[in-house]
Design brief:
The chain has one helix at residues 75-87; strands at 2-11, 18-20, 28-37, 43-49, 52-59, 65-70. The protein has a domain at 1-61. The chain is elongated. It has 88 residues and is mainly β.
Length: 88
């Protein structure tokens, strides 16, 4: 089973860091969280924005994120991923 969620984020034009729930203005980027059953009793997924996967996610049985691995290692991406995961 696949579950998807779109999260509108404001993008700081100087740092390029995304912040959820700041969806007012011109610099809006939609982050997409995909979650699916992994076939072994767990749930995994991805966090994507700006045209690519930025993090691989692991969820608990209730759908809460319990871990992630960055797919793109830079400070802006890490800050954006942490902001979005704190929001969901």
């Amino acid at each position: 089973m696949l579950s998807q969620r779109s999260i509108p984020c404001g993008c700081d034009p100087q740092t390029l860091i995304l912040t959820p729930n700041m969806g007012i203005g011109q610099n809006i980027i939609n982050a997409m969280v995909d979650m699916r059953d992994d076939g072994f009793g767990g749930k995994t997924g991805t966090l994507s924005f700006s045209g690519g996967v930025k993090a691989f996610l692991t969820f608990d049985d209730c759908g809460r994120v319990i871990g992630y691995t960055l797919a793109d290692y830079n400070v802006g991406t890490q800050s954006s991923v942490e902001n979005i995961l704190a929001y969901i």
